[in-house]
Amino acid sequence: MIFVRSQVLSSDRWGLAGWRLVLDWSLPYVPGQWVQLRLPGLDDPRMYSIANPPGQRAITILYTLLAEGRLTPRLSLLKPGDIIEVAGPGGAFEAEKGSNLWIAGGTGIAPFLSMQKLIESKWYGPNSRPTLLQSNKLEDDLYGSEIFSDLNERNLLKYYPFVTQGTNSGPRITEWLDAQDRSFFKAFERIMICGSTSMILDLRDLLLGRGVDFHRIVSEVYF
Amino acid sequence: MNDRKKGNLYGLTLTELRNLVKNLGEPEYRGNQLFEWMYTHRIHNLQAMTNLGQSLRDHLSNEYRIQVIDISKVDESTDGTKKYLYPISTATYVESAYIPETDRKTLCVSTQGGCKMACLFCMTARQGLQTQLSAGEILGQYAGIPESLDITHIVYMGMGEPLDNTEEVLKSIEGFTEGYGLSSKRITVSTIGILPGLSRLLEETEVNVAISLHSPFAEERKRLMPVQSVYPFESVLELLKKYDFSRRKLSFEYILFDGINDTADHAQELVRLLNPLRCRINLLHFHPIPNSPLSGTPRKRIEEFQAYLKSKGLIATVRKSRGEDIQAACGLLSTKELVRRPLAETLDY
Questions:
Q1: Total-model pTM
Q2: Which CATH number goes with the domain that contains B36?
C-alpha cells in the first residue's frame, strides 16, 4: 500500500478507555472501510476502521490505548499539526440495503459510525431502518451513543445499548439475543457484526443455533 | 541460574545470534558458529560446541539454554500420519502433523495457538487467538520429533494464520532454509490472504504460496471467511499477478461444501479468475466439525468438479484426506484440549 502524509487535526479522549484521532483526509472512501496508520520512522502499520461518514475532508480514528502496544501509546501523544502516515482506504465491510441487524462490541462500533449519513439520508427506507446493538464494558465507552440515540428518536434507527460492567450493567447482548423469538431473527436479511473474535464466534454460534442461515451473517474481526 | 529462567537461543536467526555474541564482546563470526551447531549439526548442548572458546561456552551456558518445545502427546493413524500435540502454556496447545507418503515426508506446522480469523469452517477458529508462536516454537515442531531427519517438505498449514504472525514465520523460514538446509522449493506457506504479510513473504522469501480461497464470489467468501471484508480476494489476486510463479509454486486451496460452493457457477468463476495465473487448485474434502452449518461435498461430485476445472485448462488436484482416525485436520485435537475461555468480566459484549 502507498502511504501518504496526513496532518493531525485533533486528538482527544473519547469516553474512559477510548481515544479519537482526527486526520486531514481528502480521498474518497465508502462507509465501513479502513485505513492503515504508521508513524514516520516506524514500520509495522496498524489498521483502523474509519469512524466518521465520508464528505468531511477528515477521517476519525477510534482506538483504545494498549499500554504494551507499539503504536497506540505513540498515537495518544500526537498533537494538532503533527504528521502521521496513512494508507488506504481498503476493505469491503460495506452497508447493504434491506433489513439489517448491526452488532458492535467496543471499538467495533467504528464502521457503523461511518454509516450514520446513510441512515440520515433515509437510504434504508422507512420499512427497513437498521437495528443497532452496541456493547461495551462501561456506559461512558458507548462511543457515539448520543448520535445513535438521536437517530433512534427520529425513527431512523432502532438502537439498543448494552453495558457489561458498572452500575448500569444489564443483560449482555448474547443474553438479550437469546431471549428473542425466532421472528426477531427472521426479520433481518443481513446481520453485520464487528468486534473481537470471541464476540464474533459467540454471536455466530448463537445465531446459527437460532436458525439464522450463515449467508446472512457478515463479520469483521479486529486487526 | 535456574534453567527455565535462562534465555532460549533456539529459534534465533543468524543475524540475531551475531548481534548477541557481538554484545558479549565476541567477534560476530562466533554467531555463525553457534548457528551452525544449533541447526546444521543439531547440537543443543552449549558445552559441546567445541570451536567456541571455553569462556564463551561458560558464559552462554550460564545465561542461555537451547530448548526445543516439548511434545505432550502423539497419535498415530492407520495410514502412518502422526499428530503431535505441544503445550505452549498451561492451557494452550498447538499441533503438528507428520504425513509420510512414498515419495515425500511432509510436516504440517502451526504458527499460532488458536486463530483470530474466525473462518466459518475452521475448528482452530473456535479457540480464538490464544498466543503467537515464536520462530523457535515453529522450528521446534520440526526439530523435536523423531522423524525430523526424514522430513522432505514443510507446509505452514497447521493451526493459525501464518501471516498474522509474519515476523516469526519469516524467521522460521530462515531457520528451515539457512539452518536446517531445506530448500525453499519444499516449503509452502498457506494463508487466507493477509496482504501486508503476503507482500513481505513474496518479497523476502522464495517459498511456495498457497491461498485459501473457498469461494470465487466475494459476498459468499465474506460469509465463509471474515477476512474478505478486510482484504478482498480481488486485492490478493492483484498482488499475486505482479509476481513470477515459474520458480515457486502458487496454489489455491478450495474446500468443497455440499450445495454451497460446488456448483457449475463456482467452477466457471474459478476458471475465469485463476486461468490467467500460473497456478494449481487443490480441492479438499471437508473434515466435518461439530455444530457447523456446512457439510462436505460427496466424493463423486468433487471429482466432477475437478474434471470440469481440468477440462478448462486448470491444474486441479483432489487432496487425499490423511489421518482422519486421529483427527489430523488442524485444530481438532488442540481444541479438545483447550481449557481456557475468556473470563466474563473481561468481555465487552
A1: 0.92
A2: 1.10.150.530
